[in-house]
Amino acid sequence: MSERRHLQVSCALIERDGAVLACRRSATMKMPLKWEFPGGKIEAGESAAECLVREVLEEMAVRVSIIEPLTPVTHDYATFTVTLYPFVCSIEEGEPVLHEHAELLWLPPDELPHLDWCEADFPIIADYRERLSARQKG
Ligand SMILES: Nc1nc2c([nH]c(=O)n2[C@H]2C[C@H](O)[C@@H](COP(=O)(O)OP(=O)(O)OP(=O)(O)O)O2)c(=O)[nH]1
User: Which cofactor does the UniProt annotation name (predicted)?
Assistant: First the structure.
């Protein structure tokens, strides 16, 4: 029996002017038309943070700097498992462009849960919003 695939993926919650960038997967990708954060698979010898910066640059021609890591999330999909390493980021250089995605959207954090996200992303959004409200209180 073949072993179930377990992907290690970095993803970016890019903040700008009180909004966060959401990307919609194209109709031809796996999980078509689901929303996700920009990012991709961690390569051998690469840290999650290095992967994040490389992937966002490749995917949307934007150089990001990391503000803070969020708690990694492991999720079982029907055919594979993914561990997502999320990072809150800001843009250092560039304007996001559509290469692979069907749509890009800047959304206030409170509106993020309303999109049809890849399942693994919901706990990340919850963690992010909790940290934001903690930041505002304290
Ligand atoms: N980039 C990204 N991927 C996510 C998120 N949530 C989530 O479940 N994933 C999954 C979708 C993919 O299976 C995997 C990301 O790998 P990828 O971006 O290299 O994969 P892909 O489907 O675009 O392409 P591929 O496997 O055919 O090479 O992680 C997310 O927020 N961002």
Answer: Mg(2+)
* Domain ranges within the chain, ordered by starting residue: 5-137
Please report the atom of ligand 1 found closest to the CA of residue 86.
Answer: 31
Distance from Cα 131 to the centre of ligand 1, integer Å: 24
In one letter, which amino acid is 99? H
CATH class of 5-137: alpha beta
Q: Which atom of ligand 1 is nearest to the CA of 100?
A: 23
pLDDT computed for residue 84 by the predictor: 98
Q: Which residues pair with 66 in a beta bridge?
A: 89
Q: Residue 8: CB partners within 8 Å, gap ≥ 6?
A: 41, 42, 48, 82, 83, 85
Global ipTM: 0.94
Does 46 have pLDDT greater than 80? yes
Give pTM, 2 decimals: 0.95
